[in-house]
Design a protein that fits this description.
This protein has one helix and four strands; from the N terminus they run E-E-E-H-E. By secondary structure, the protein is of the alpha+beta class.
């Protein structure tokens, strides 16, 4: 695996939402969002990750 295939996900969890950031291996912020709690938030998080990595990526996601 190369550094281009590594994505870090940071999650600051509050009672009713999550503030998430996606970062590359160099620590550069790729995207950030405030996501609601529950299935809708998870769906948006998966969409964010898919947008950064591409649907066919075999990259690993670390936290």
């Amino acid at each position: 695996m190369t550094e281009d295939e590594l994505l870090f996900v940071g999650d600051d969890w509050a009672q009713d939402h999550h503030d998430v950031e996606l970062m590359d291996a160099a620590g550069r912020r790729l995207s950030k969002a405030r996501l609601p709690e529950g299935v809708v938030g998870i769906e948006r998080l998966h969409a964010m990750i898919g947008a950064e990595l591409g649907e066919d990526s075999e990259a690993e996601v670390g936290s």
